[in-house]
């Protein structure tokens, strides 16, 4: 099976999720080999949560699942790029379309991203 | 100074370089705080090479410098997205426009990226 070089990276590789229609970079998270396999098997992006130490189906709480459209590996086989159909239109747990919703503007971070949902409504608590 | 949370990440953060015109994801590499500062000071993307253990001006050998257009930080302040003007049109040391030049196609990796230069000519040896 084609896979990233998990041995080289110590078990986890960074994964960039990109909107397959707009080209927006939505988020970066990590996969271990099991998350990679589950992603291929199901067509839904699974990550490995480093804080919770477990496999995580993106959207399992919010419903904002990422459907796999295309998968790319980089030249060193240690980074993955996945073009996804982002259900619900938002990847970020803060309710924004992209996790990269703040732009550096001089010495400030300016919110430039589009807010799609209220995290308190979706998750039932402050995110 | 606004900066990624280098303490949380143990000193290095992943950085996604995206073509500011086409939206193509070009590469992923890492920055430490010094690389972050040099990038802001010079307007040219600097990374930290984990294999060479040193700061690296992207394009220092090839001339394929990345000029900073916009910088974004993610919701957790542990990943950077930089929109760049990729001089020379190629980010990958293999000569491709993007490091993500291979797409998973069944159980194969299919080259779908555009080759811009011959690494042997640019670097004077096999890359």
Task: Give me some keywords for this one.
homodimer, 127 residues, alpha+beta, Ubiquitin-like (UB roll), 4-stranded mixed beta sheet, two-stranded antiparallel sheet, globular, Phosphoribosyl-AMP cyclohydrolase (chains A, B), metal-binding (chains A, B)
How would you characterize the overall build of this protein?
The first copy, chain A, is α+β, with helices and mostly antiparallel strands and about 130 residues long. Chain A has a single domain (about 5-95), classed as Ubiquitin-like (UB roll) (Roll), CATH 3.10.20.810. The first copy, chain A, is about 15% helix and about 35% strand. Chain A has helices spanning about 5-10, 35-40, 120-125; strands spanning about 15-20, 25-30, 45-50, 55, 65-75, 80-85, 100-105, 110. In chain A, strand 1 (about 15-20) and strand 2 form a beta hairpin. The longest helix of chain A has 10 residues, at about 35-40. Chain A is globular. Chain A starts with 5 loop residues before the first helix and ends with a helix. The model of chain A has no long low-confidence stretch (mean pLDDT about 95). Strand 7 of chain A pairs antiparallel with strand 5 (about 65-75) of chain B. Chains A, B: It is found in: Cytoplasm. Chains A, B: Keywords: Amino-acid biosynthesis, Cytoplasm, Histidine biosynthesis, Hydrolase, Magnesium, Metal-binding, Zinc. Chains A, B: GO terms for molecular function: magnesium ion binding; phosphoribosyl-AMP cyclohydrolase activity; phosphoribosyl-ATP diphosphatase activity; zinc ion binding. Chains A, B: Homodimer. Chains A, B: It holds the Pfam family PRA-CH.
């Amino acid at each position: 099976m084609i896979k990233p070089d998990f041995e080289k990276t110590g078990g986890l590789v960074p994964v960039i999720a990109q909107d397959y229609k707009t080209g927006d970079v939505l988020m970066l998270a990590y996969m271990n080999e099991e998350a990679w396999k589950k992603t291929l098997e199901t067509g839904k992006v699974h990550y490995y949560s480093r804080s919770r130490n477990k496999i995580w189906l993106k959207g399992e709480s919010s419903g904002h699942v990422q459907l796999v459209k295309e998968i790319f590996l980089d030249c060193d086989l240690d980074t993955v790029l996945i073009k996804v159909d982002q259900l619900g239109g938002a990847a970020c747990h803060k309710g924004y379309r992209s996790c990269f919703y703040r732009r550096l503007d001089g010495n400030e971070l300016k919110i430039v991203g589009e807010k799609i949902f209220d995290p308190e409504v979706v998750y039932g608590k402050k995110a």
